[in-house]
Description:
With about 475 residues, this protein is an alpha+beta fold. It folds into 3 domains: about 5-205, Sandwich (Jelly Rolls), CATH 2.60.120; about 220-310; about 315-484, Histidine kinase-like ATPase, C-terminal domain (Heat Shock Protein 90, 2-Layer Sandwich), CATH 3.30.565. The protein is about 35% helix and about 25% strand. It is built from 9 helices and 19 strands. The chain has a 7-stranded mixed β-sheet, with no helix packed on it. The chain has a 5-stranded antiparallel β-sheet with strand order 7-6-9-4-12, with no helix packed on it. Strand 18 and strand 19 (about 435-445) form a beta hairpin.
Amino acid sequence: MNRLLLLVWFLAPATLVAAGDTQKIPTELAELTNRLGSWIWEEKTLDNQTCQLWRTFEIPAAARVTKAQVLMTVDNEFTLYLDGRELGRGTEWRELYVFDLSQLLTPGLHVLAVNCFNSADDAGMVFGLRIELADGRIIEVKSDQSWRIVPLGTRRWEKRTEAQPGWPAATIIAPLGGLAPMNQVPWMPIAGKAIAIPPLQPIQVFFWQTAWFQITVLLAGGLIILIVLRLMAQLALHQNEQRLLQKERARIAREIHDDIGSRMTQLVLDGEEAQSGLSDSTHTRQQLTHICEEARGLLATMDEILWAVNPRKDTLRDFTAYVCKYAQKFLKPTQIQCLLEVEPTISSAAFSLPLRRSLFMAIKESLNNAVKYSEATELLLKIQWLNQRLVVVVMDNGRGFDPAKVTPDRNGLTNMAQRMSEVGGRCLVTSQPGEGCRVEFSIPLKHRHPWAWIWNANQFSEHMSHARNDRTNELSPNHDPTKF
């Protein structure tokens, strides 16, 4: 290309074009010329050639930049980077490009990188950076041999703060306004107009964009994943244990019913047959009668055990049906009329063995007390679902009592309250002399999260421990559960 035809541009007033508006920029040649360095490039100039130019500069510590401006152009195209951040591009060597870096520069080391492309003939870059500090100092960076040529294919070269040993120094193709080496014509020192690139603002790095925060999030996410996987493994193990437990409970229930139950029934039949050959007054017949009665009592107790052990009965509906049936059967030989009031829409949700056993034993004890001490003619058994709680009320119309005058050695009330407390429930006894007695049991049965058992891993074992202690107390000869 013949740059002699462009000399008229050199003499024309320089203008600055920004965002569609034309503003005056300094027209003195010397002022513009002093800001620019020489035309630099690789040692060899080729058509369709890419040249990567790199340089660092440093702003003193504690210095404050008041103004920073880059003037540059490249024959033919370029992309300018500062600390790895792209600032802008140019595609016309005849125009001077102006970049305002005032808001981007801070004390410390900075990296300038220019990716240049030459389509044909001569090639070069002219560059000038002027930095004005608040204390009056000036820092200038111009295109000269201090720039390095970065080999093509080098990764992340725009951000590197140190030059590699294999990066050669840039070659000065021609001084500003000097002759081009190929055609010996003056190389234009400045174009007729300048393009002002809109100034860029500093990149705001929020705390969630910082490396330490992202690493922390990744570590926390990894930890959460590990915890979830561990909980899932524990849940799978727990479910498997529950299946094995339910299977074992079903097996025990079958063996008790089929083996021990049948043998106990045969024992009763043998005793009754032995009685038939004896007179009513003989001592042996009385003993056999007592044995048969005890065996029948054991059969009744075994029925309760079978009900408690059978996993198919672990629902609220089955519990309600069994308690009503038991109360009617228990009160049938007495003068007390049993009245039932059961919520028809009682839930069929799961009702675990520790909970239903503790509640059943408390109800059983309250029925015993009503039969032995109340002298009532009616007893109301009320079962309802109220505010996520199972509420059971045992109320009679007997003689009642004064709870404040209950003697300490009669621990029936204490036992019922303790049973409810152990499973997170409560027992409320209301009575006055001559006004009957009302006993209310309530157990919270809120829907539990599938993972809740993990956070309360000892709950089941605690319930089972309490159940074992309860059975031990029931067998103690010094404790009568039917007394208040």
